[in-house]
Specification:
Distance between the termini: 65 Å
Number of domains: 2
Structural class: alpha+beta
Number of strands: 10
């Protein structure tokens, strides 16, 4: 007699309709609604020989094949955390080092818990502004500093005059904008990895992750007149 086992070890029955969500919505549901927590792996012991290990995706797929259930509810005292949320948190915790490792896993979880997208400084344009300004009865003016002296002939006499200049700065600095947008791109890559892992594993019980992703570079818009990409 042939028996079939599903993920939860129960006999096969009618399939329940799954709720479709993007990966960002899935993460926000797991961490913001279900309050899932990351269980980050311990750092390796340098005195202990480290053998070859399988990635988390392989372990989860093997669990599914064996009909195992992901344990849940261990972080909420007296309440239940959906096992899908526990599984999502486990995948985030396994973020590979080339995508930022533990630090990126924590960032992904914190942003999802707050329901936020990384600040990529929309609309930011570097402007050259005075370092310091002063206000008087005539209005606001840039502060000037002495940067040197010069000898000049004035009315038949040589005089020493001060050379004044107004120190300026780029605000926001171009590197500040570039750093914020690199951070957004790193977060996007991390979400893409999580989405691929959830799609490949097909282990979520009540959720179906769609292919929808946040805009990869929301600061790049198409100029309709020239057909060129414009950086904002």
């Amino acid at each position: 007699m042939k028996y079939e086992r599903n993920l939860h070890g129960r006999t096969a029955g009618p399939k329940r309709a799954k709720h479709s969500k993007s990966v960002q919505q899935t993460l926000e549901w797991a961490f913001r609604v279900e309050h899932a927590q990351l269980e980050l792996p311990e750092p390796p012991d340098p005195e202990r020989r480290q053998g070859f290990g399988f990635g988390l995706e392989y372990v989860l797929i093997q669990r599914a094949a064996l009909g195992c259930k992901v344990d849940g509810g261990q972080h909420k005292i007296g309440s239940y955390i959906h096992e899908d949320a526990e599984l999502i948190a486990a995948i985030v915790a396994a973020m590979p080092d080339n995508l930022g490792g533990k630090r990126m896993a924590i960032r992904v979880a914190e942003l999802a818990r707050a329901g936020l997208t990384p600040d990529w400084m929309p609309g930011a344009v570097p402007r050259c502004v005075p370092v310091e300004t002063k206000r008087n009865q005539h209005g606001e003016r840039a502060s000037a500093v002495v940067v040197g002296t010069e000898r000049m002939l004035s009315r038949g006499k040589w005089r020493t005059v001060e050379l004044m200049a107004c120190p300026v700065i780029w605000r926001p600095h171009p590197e500040q904008i570039a750093s914020a947008r690199r951070g957004y791109e790193d977060w996007w890559q991390a979400l893409d990895w999580v989405r691929d892992g959830l799609l490949a594993g097909s282990m979520l019980r009540d959720l179906e992750v769609t292919a929808t992703m946040p805009k990869v570079r929301p600061w790049a818009v198409m100029n309709s007149s020239s057909g060129r990409i414009v950086q904002l």
